[in-house]
């Protein structure tokens, strides 16, 4: 396991409502196999409404949403008034290239929590209802012209515990070949 220089949690959020944004909290508790205690998206099976409509028995690969604070910096510089929690993430990070992680990477957060990265968050039209033009601002193109989804990553909780702003984040890459993140 490696610890990225200055990789840390900058804020934590939760909401028991199926709302777009989540509320800032001093601490959130992650529950192994479920997600964030009290959050509307916690559960063994999928909890996102659009996915429940397709297959309510599907496993929940989206128990925890992590988003890099650097995206908020970028969005604010582009004229959007968007703050941590506004895009529905549970954990806002700083100092870690979330989008560059491999599928299966384990993030060791604080003293005990382990979250396994399952894939990218696929931004949806709710982002434009929050602020017009925001969805396009959360998408980009790489050097080869491929679509880059910047709205964070999703994960499952392997080891639960409390997470707070300031907690360090260690990175444990998966064994084997690098598998880039895909939307989940």
TrEMBL record:
Residues 19-172 form the MOSC domain. It comes from Variovorax ginsengisoli. InterPro entries: MoCF_Sase_C, MOSC_domain, Pyrv_Knase-like_insert_dom_sf. This is MOSC domain-containing protein.
């Amino acid at each position: 396991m490696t610890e990225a220089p200055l990789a840390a949690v900058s804020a934590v959020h939760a909401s028991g409502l199926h709302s777009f944004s989540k509320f800032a909290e001093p601490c959130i508790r992650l529950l192994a196999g479920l997600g964030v205690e009290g959050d509307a998206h916690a559960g063994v099976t999928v909890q996102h409404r659009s996915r429940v409509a397709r297959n309510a028995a599907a496993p929940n690969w989206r128990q925890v949403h992590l988003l890099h604070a650097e995206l908020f910096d970028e969005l604010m510089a582009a004229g959007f008034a968007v703050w941590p929690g506004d895009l529905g993430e549970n954990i806002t990070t700083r100092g870690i290239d979330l989008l560059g992680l491999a599928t299966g990477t384990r993030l060791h957060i604080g003293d005990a929590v382990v979250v396994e990265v399952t894939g990218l968050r696929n931004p949806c039209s709710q982002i434009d209802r929050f602020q017009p033009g925001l969805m396009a601002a959360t998408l980009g193109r790489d050097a080869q012209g491929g679509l880059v989804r910047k709205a964070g990553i999703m994960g499952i909780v392997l080891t639960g515990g409390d997470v707070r702003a300031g907690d360090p984040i260690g990175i444990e890459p998966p064994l084997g070949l690098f598998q880039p993140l895909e939307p989940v």
